[in-house]
Specification:
The complex is a heterotrimer of chains A (416), B (546) and C (222).
Chain A (H helix, E strand, L loop, with lengths): L18 H6 L4 H8 L4 H8 L11 H10 L5 E7 L9 H7 L1 H15 L1 E8 L4 H14 L3 H10 L4 E6 L9 H8 L23 E5 H13 L1 H7 L7 E8 L5 E6 L4 H8 L9 E6 L6 E3 L9 H6 L8 E6 L4 H15 L5 H18 L5 H13 L8 H15 L13
Parallel strand pairs in A: 1-2, 1-4, 2-3, 5-9
Antiparallel strand pairs in A: 5-6, 7-8, 7-9
Helix pairs in contact in A: 2-6, 2-10, 3-4, 3-11, 5-6, 5-7, 6-8, 6-10, 10-11, 14-15, 14-17, 15-16, 15-17, 16-17
Chain B lengths: L11 E2 H10 L12 H8 L9 E2 L9 E2 L1 H7 L16 E8 L3 H12 L4 E4 L16 E2 L8 H11 L6 H21 L5 E3 L6 E2 L12 E2 L5 H14 L4 E4 L4 E6 L5 E8 L4 E12 L23 H9 L3 E2 L4 E8 L13 H4 L3 E3 L13 H13 L4 E3 L2 E7 H7 L3 H4 L2 H10 L8 E10 L2 E3 L11 E3 L4 E2 L10 H23 L8 H12 L20 H6 L4
Parallel strand pairs in B: 1-17, 4-5, 4-13, 5-10, 13-21, 20-22
Antiparallel strand pairs in B: 2-3, 6-9, 7-8, 11-12, 12-13, 14-20, 15-19, 16-18, 17-18, 18-19
Chain C lengths: L3 E6 L2 E6 L4 H5 L22 E5 L6 E5 L10 E4 L22 H8 L11 H5 L6 H10 L2 H7 L8 H5 L6 H16 L3 H11 L24
Parallel strand pairs in C: 1-5
Antiparallel strand pairs in C: 1-2, 3-4, 3-5
Classes of the chains: A alpha/beta (416), B alpha/beta (546), C alpha+beta (222).
Chain lengths: 416, 546, 222
């Protein structure tokens, strides 16, 4: 079984807002390395192959480069701590227990893109985490570290903690911009992207909490060190939020590329009540399902993609035999229906109609025509909204029909 | 579905007819060569040879009836006793069947009378002919008007065949009905003055001697139905069952009506509702497309209630009498049958044939106007466009004189014209009679009681109010007057009723009669949906067992 | 004049002759039609709500199928008639003080003040009513203005389904309309007749011969 890693989850770093204690265990050394060679920051991240941990898995260095390239000398860094999807609970841990490594990563980003403002966007439902982040940010003011960063950027840097709207859609990048600009967190049409036109119209870098937390360790220990942490083709570690029908649900830091088998049956302790493994909602409820056939898959972005799934945030919701997949999907689609921001009737009405069809099927009242209608919705809805909420809902529905067709009414049956 | 009078009859091509219309001088109302009776006898669809057969079974055996309707009335039941086994009934005071204006009014009145109510609708509450009504509702409130005049107009309009007591009830209740509707929040247009103290806008319709049709723009039915539906849906004492058509009534050992068998389309199962009294408010029969006519009616107008009531022994009347509204849209074909309100003629639009001539007083009673149009088309003076025949409704002239009408009073006309791709200010509409209203139906008294104890009826399903031809604005009045009375009476009946056994004894009696008449292998009724609804009850139920 | 087109409805491929409405096309293959159907073209009952994606377009719009022409390559999904949560219950008879009508409105529809201005209701409305503005007017106390906006509403409930704040906009509009009418519409001619009837003015001659010589039932159209 692949052993646990303790980079982000190193117990020695579990210090909350205590700045001096954090400095004593080596906190700030990544920032020092960045200050020593600011022009090498992005190339280091490129060599390290750090990917975005908020769900998209986008190469981090490319996002930072895009902001660097934006024509403006007034830029913003946003640390996205909205984390509001069922099954993901990693960012809240980092913010509450290891805020300083997150702040350090954000400041390294500020150096790289020459930002004048760094905003920590935290979900207010995580009341303790919000409080800790506020204290932690306060600890940085008037420190020599911050002064060095400001010197490198060439201007004063404003640090602040902004509570998010506490809504599911509020994690989407353009929604973050809407909210920070004082409006409801409505996703907007893209382009323009935040890296060109973000908070207050300024080029904005938005990165997930876990992504930023990795940055100081990479700068301190080097790209080779980071790559070597991963298995196979993968680099670094991943925080997996393991939940569902397992003996030991929880947050696990493991090498990227750890097998699903190891995660569920090794660290997770196997299935509850010794039931059979049925499926896992990979990356959370807006992605695809992996099944018994996929227990050998390496949990990294590219290997999971090759299995036609998506690592997402690293959330793994495990489902045991005896659970109705349709019922679970119906619950998730209802979650999406309620989380829809309202701008796009196709999303709001589409998710509600899918939820209704799923509910009917889950309670044994569905017909072949209902299944056909559901599949049809899956083909007409993607791309019709301003953000990916409706696409995520469709993805999980389609995946459930493909992986568990026997739970859906047969297509050959009846007239409605 | 369209009564395309086949092109063995000649007609004037559209383009020629249009030219003649535009070049014709303004015309006075033509003198009528035939008497009204002669015109009807020669051209009204009710009078066609193949429009009548005698019923072969039932309480009105021998009565004349349209053959298509006779098929339903003579039909066998859809269910038998075996289907009721293991069904747990819902028990209530009053069961209302039908979600239109009459059903809603009955529901509210029954509630007012202290009853718990179950309202079962085949589609949804509000899906009805009521919501489609445009013209308005009659009430004799003008200074120059009187209840007597309203009574006389109605009796005469119905060719003297209406039941005087029912008509008296209708006209007497009218002012109070308007007040009741206003109290619920139904708005009516004012002619002038402020909301408090002003005067209501009143229109004349065909066959009325005074202007007494009250309206809300030209969608009075929508205004009324949405308020009634909301009032019903917000009443916690009403259980609304949508998608639950009634497929049979229930009877007790004394032959009283004690409920109904519903079919739950969602769960694909039968449901029983046992009630102290039942109100049938199932509307009309337009979707039977009698004699192949297009219809203005709602999708659910398939004479369900008539079949159920007759099977139970209720007396019927005037079931060979149907109203064909003169101005159904004829072109384009996919909109055929859609109604253009009589209000357009009330405001002064004229009917013009293919030769550019007027041919009838546009505000004659509807059956007269319809017959006149059918005559023009039969005698080669119709207009044909893309194989569809009709006559012109001259909206351009009307709207040239009164352009504001399209924005204010004739909103629905504007919408319909837009959907047809026609600019009504420049182009006349091609119209042809459309099957519109069932004049006759279940015999009722002034409380809506049928001849079957416990069975009350209201609205288009009933007969005797409109005789053999209904006046514009009397249908919306009918449904509220008798809907309220039936609901109140049903509540009183339910309060006094002693519970008995429920069953299908009346079905067994019926089947014996059918057997004796050699009709037991015939089709079943009610049909619930028109043929193009592709619905078969047994197949629908069976699909749930796969 | 008739071309043939192909479209898909709820996953069924259909080929029909134009012009035809989406609703007419929907049952062209013999599929039973027992829901989402009503006035069949008048566009006044709101039953036939559906989502439509046109060929080569990313947008999905909500329309009434009976009043929308079917086009080649259209993809249509009907929306069941259901409501996502509880209605706002009130009895119009219990609203008696016009001075306090605005308070009654906000008491019965408290969510209206939380409108997030997403515009979903406007986009969802198949009649292109200014729904969001109607809600805002009601909240601001301009009840007549709000009532006017909902004049032609067919109560299809698409805005209610589309609203993320549970405002039930069309029901708010209807409530305002109902209350204003019930509290303020007092036509003098109607009242006069009602008073007459109360004093016993409803004696009728049922014989059918009482028509006072007005032979002119038929007259010139004006």
């Amino acid at each position: 079984m692949t052993p646990l890693k303790t980079v982000l989850l190193d117990p020695a770093l579990k210090l909350g807002a205590d700045f001096p204690a954090w400095r004593r265990v080596g906190g700030g050394e990544g920032l020092a390395a960045a200050l020593a060679a600011p022009q090498a920051i992005i190339s280091t991240l490129e060599a390290a192959q750090l990917r975005g941990m908020g769900g998209a898995g986008f190469p981090t260095w490319r996002k930072w480069s895009a902001v660097v390239a934006a024509a403006s000398d007034d830029k913003v860094v946003v640390c996205n701590g909205n984390e509001d999807e069922p099954g993901t609970f990693k960012d809240r841990y980092l913010l509450r227990f290891t805020p300083h490594q997150v702040i350090e990563g954000a400041l390294i980003a500020a150096i790289a893109v020459k930002a004048s403002e760094v905003i920590f966007y935290v979900n207010p439902h995580q009341a303790e985490g919000l409080e800790v982040m506020r204290r932690a940010v306060m600890e940085w003011t008037a420190t020599d570290l911050l002064a060095a960063v400001e010197a490198a950027v060439g201007r004063p840097i404003k640090l602040r903690v902004a509570p998010s709207a506490g809504r599911y859609v509020g994690g989407e990048e353009t929604a973050i911009v809407s909210w920070l600009d004082g409006d409801f967190p409505f996703p907007q049409r893209k382009p323009p992207y935040p890296f060109e036109n973000g908070v207050g119209g300024r080029p904005t870098l938005i990165n997930n909490v876990e992504t930023l937390a990795n940055v100081p360790h990479i700068l301190k220990n080097g790209a080779n060190w980071y790559r070597a942490l991963g298995l196979g083709i993968a680099a670094g570690t991943k925080l997996f939020s393991l939940s569902g029908d397992v003996l030991r649900p929880g947050l696990y830091e493991l090498p990227m590329g750890t097998s699903l088998q190891d995660l569920v049956f090794g660290h997770g302790g196997g299935m509850l009540e010794r039931r059979g493994f049925k499926a896992v909602f990979t990356g959370g409820p807006s992605n695809t399902l992996l099944t018994v056939r996929d227990l050998d898959v390496a949990l990294d972005f590219d290997s999971v993609r090759a299995r036609r799934s998506h690592l997402g945030t690293g959330a793994m919701i495990v489902i045991s035999e005896g659970t109705s997949i349709v019922r679970k999907v119906a619950e998730y689609v209802a979650f999406f229906a309620n989380g829809s921001c309202g701008q796009c009737p196709s999303c709001k009405c589409g998710t509600f109609q899918m939820a209704r069809l799923l509910e009917r099927i889950a309670t044994g009242r569905g017909s072949g025509a209902d299944r056909q209608a559901l599949e049809h919705l899956c083909s007409i809805l993607p791309g019709s909204g301003r953000c990916g909420l409706i696409d995520g809902a469709v993805t999980v529905v389609k995946s459930s029909i493909e992986t568990f067709p026997e739970e859906y009414p047969s297509q050959l049956r009846d007239v409605s | 579905m369209m009564s395309t009078t086949s092109l063995s009859v000649s007609a004037v091509p559209y383009a020629d007819a249009l030219t003649r219309l535009r070049t014709a001088a303004a015309q006075a109302s033509p003198a009528e060569a035939l008497s009204r009776e002669e015109l009807l006898a020669a051209y009204h669809p009710d009078h066609n040879e193949d429009a009548r057969v005698a019923l072969r079974v039932g309480g009105n055996r021998g009565m004349l009836c349209h053959p298509t309707l006779a098929c339903l009335l003579e039909g066998n039941a859809l269910v038998g006793d075996v289907d009721l086994v293991a069904l747990d009934p819902v028990v209530t005071d009053v069961l209302v069947i039908g979600g239109g204006g009459a059903g809603a009014a009955a529901t509210l009145a029954a509630r007012r009378g202290g009853a718990d109510v179950v309202l079962a609708a085949k589609l949804r509450v509000g899906d009805s002919n009521t919501v489609m009504a445009e013209g308005g509702i009659q009430a004799a409130i003008g200074e120059e008007d009187s209840l007597q005049r309203h009574f006389d107009d109605t009796l005469k309009g119905g060719h003297g065949a209406g039941e005087p007591e029912l008509i008296a009830r209708l006209v007497r209740d009218a002012p109070e009905v308007i007040r009741w509707l206003i109290g619920l929040g139904v708005s009516f247009d004012l002619a002038e003055g402020p909301l408090a103290g002003g005067r209501l806008l009143r229109k004349r319709g065909g066959g009325t001697t005074a202007a007494r049709i009250l309206s809300h723009r030209d969608f009075t039915g929508l205004e009324m139905m949405r308020v009634l539906r909301e009032a019903v849906e917000l009443d916690r004492g009403v259980t609304v069952l949508n998608r639950a058509p009634a497929i049979e009534l229930l009877s007790d050992e004394r032959g009283r009506c004690v409920g109904a068998v519903l079919y739950d389309l969602e769960l694909r199962r039968l449901r029983l509702v046992c009630a102290g009294a039942v109100v049938l408010a199932t509307g009309g029969a337009g979707r039977l497309h009698l004699s192949g006519f297009a219809t203005s009616n709602h999708y659910g107008a398939t004479a369900d209630g008539l079949a159920l009531a007759y099977r139970m022994g209720a007396q019927l009347r005037d079931i060979d009498s149907f109203q064909y509204h003169p101005t159904g849209i004829a072109w384009p074909g996919h909109l055929a049958g859609g109604l253009i309100s009589e209000a357009v003629r009330s405001f002064g639009a004229t009917l013009v044939n293919g030769q550019g001539a007027r041919f009838i007083d546009e505000l004659s009673p509807r059956d007269v106007v319809t017959s006149a149009i059918l005559r023009e088309c039969a005698e080669g003076r119709g207009v044909v466009r893309d194989g569809l025949i009709g006559v012109f409704l001259d909206t351009p002239t009307l709207l040239a004189n009164r352009p504001a009408l399209l924005r204010e009073q004739l909103v629905s006309l504007g919408h319909l014209a837009h959907r047809a791709g026609i600019d009504p200010t420049r182009e006349p509409m091609l119209i042809y009679p459309t099957l519109h209203y069932q004049n006759g139906g279940v015999v009722i008294d002034t409380d809506g009681a049928s001849t079957v104890p416990g069975l009350y009826c209201a609205g288009e399903v009933t007969g005797g109010v409109h005789g053999r031809n209904r006046l514009m604005g009397n249908a919306l009045l009918d449904i509220i007057v008798f809907g309220r009375r039936a609901g109140a009476a049903a509540a009183r009946h339910a309060a006094a009723a002693e519970p008995g056994r429920f069953g299908l004894g009346h079905v067994q009696s019926w089947q014996r009669e059918l057997t004796c008449a050699g009709l037991i292998e015939g089709p079943r009724s009610p049909i619930l949906y028109p043929a193009y609804g592709h619905f078969d009850l047994r197949r629908h139920m069976a699909a749930s067992q796969d | 004049m008739s071309d043939r087109i192909r479209l898909s409805v709820d996953g069924r491929m259909l080929e029909v002759a134009t012009p035809v409405s989406i609703l007419q096309a929907a049952s062209a293959d013999g599929t039973p039609l027992t829901a989402n159907v009503g006035c069949l073209g008048q566009g006044v009952c709101g039953a036939c709500r559906c989502m439509v994606r046109k060929q080569d377009e990313a947008d999905v719009t909500t329309v009434l199928a009976c009043e929308t022409l079917a086009e080649d390559g259209m993809q249509v999904s009907f929306i069941d008639y259901f409501i996502p949560d509880r209605p706002h219950v009130y009895d119009v008879a219990e609203i008696t003080d016009v001075w306090r009508l605005s308070n009654a409105v906000s008491g019965i529809f408290p969510e209206a003040a939380q409108c997030r201005h997403c515009g979903g209701c406007d986009r969802a409305c198949p009649k292109e009513l200014d729904v969001q503005r109607g809600v805002a007017l009601a909240v601001a106390g301009d009840l007549a203005g709000a009532a006017g906006i909902f004049d032609q509403c067919v109560m299809c409930n698409l805005c209610t389904l589309a609203c993320p704040e549970r405002i039930w906009p069309n029901h708010l509009g209807l409530m305002v309309r109902r209350a204003l009418t019930a509290l303020t519409l007092r036509p003098s001619d109607l009242i006069h007749r009602l008073n007459e009837l109360e004093r016993g003015g409803d004696v009728l001659d049922l014989s059918g011969t009482a028509s006072t010589g007005t032979a002119a039932v038929v007259s010139d159209g004006r």
